[in-house]
Amino acid sequence: MSSRAWQIESAQRVTAGRGRIVTEFFDTGASRSMPWRKRRQAAALLAAAAEPDRGFDAVVVGEFERAFAGGEARRIIDTLQGYGVQVWLPETDGPVDLTDPDHRALLMMLGHQSQREVLRARFRVRAAMAAQVREQGRHQGGRPPYGYQLVDAGPHLNKMHASWGRRRHRLEVDPVTAPHVRWIFARRLDGMSAAGIARGLNERRVPSPGVYDRVRNPHRPRAVWTLQTVAAILANPRYTGRQVWNRQFTDHREAVPGDKRSSLGPVRIWNPRDEWVICPDQTHPALVSDQDFTTAQEITARATPEDGQARRYALTGLLVCGTCGRRLAGHWVNGRPGYRCRHGHTSAHPASEDAPRWVYWAEARLVEDLTATHEALAELDDADDLAAYLTTRDMVVVCGRGTLTIEDTAGIQVDAPVAAADHGAAQTAAAVPAPAEPAISEAETPTPVARRPLRRPATRRSRMAKRRHAAENPTRSPKKRE
């Protein structure tokens, strides 16, 4: 806001004796690198310029670097001129003429200069923040981690900022939520899974972070503990009493690098651990010791089961639940691979009494039943051969409680019964009743439940991308966190 007065003064000098300023458009807190259509006042200016009775015939920019960066000026000027509105700049001492080579060269030079200033400012700010965390242990703003609260830490270290009334803040233990954080780490050290911890917190009716502090967590609509929330707490080194910064960065997902107009929306991405900035000294009370925190990370990062046996599920992504349409998940039981669908239920919450019964199939039994009852599969030896057969033909196996049906994903009938064997010439279907299930008469046959349209099985490239994302994002959550 402090620059508004001298920008208006600059615009008045340009228009002196040639016109007058009739209205103002001034964006507060908007980056120059942000496209005009994503700034509130700049977008309002473009909308007003498009109106036939706009009441002005020129736009005067007080300072180029405050309004444009990169090639944005050329695009905006061209758009406004299409509406019949001129753009005046102090550097041209009047209207910009895009047909003039000197004016085009000037715009290019000013755009690069403005972009360079953006990059320099970004580098200086990030370097200063890293030094403040590493050397001074300063809190850099944002929400306090669950278990802590922000308290006053005295005047700002910068005398000028202190004279403006700005204060420092530091983390202090929250007596209400800190015991829950200690309980989470204690249960993890006892070997409890993150989902089991979340379920225990929900059963004890402990308020989740989103419920406990709604003011700082408006983006968290869920009112319960989830596996991701518990995993985020277990992976946060700030609970050891040290200040940490740069754990995540914002990816604007620009289709054209550097062009924010092509952004698909910002998401938070985890930085590699060697890029985290950690203060070597404790700056606030610790809720967990260094040794216990390190042990908890080793439990989280365990790559293989305790028995050392590698667990492989050959049919992952090829089995679909006949009740809800979800993909069946791998489930290891009695030393053998199997697949199950819990219809959206997770271990973090108690099962609902009126929920449909889960679907479960052992891999060996599934392969045996399909190869025994389907002539085209008789020559297949194992689950790997079945997976290759289904993948090459773009098929899936629809699994019910006691029935198996092979269907073509391209022509699947969403409302069709799971055990139906006739799906038309474009599909191959085989209904396999489970030996253990009693026969059901026609009058007792339940009404089939509508399923969601199926997506094609994941390709090798998409599976590799998911593995990379899991390695970069250990808590598997896209939400912004401290």
TrEMBL record:
Residues 429-451 have a biased composition (Low complexity). GO terms for molecular function: DNA binding; DNA strand exchange activity. Residues 429-482 are annotated as: Disordered. Residues 145-306 form the Recombinase domain. Residues 452-469 have a biased composition (Basic residues). Coiled coil: none annotated. PROSITE patterns: RECOMBINASE_DNA_BIND. This is DNA invertase Pin-like site-specific DNA recombinase. It comes from Actinoplanes digitatis. The lineage of its organism: Bacteria, Bacillati, Actinomycetota, Actinomycetes, Micromonosporales.
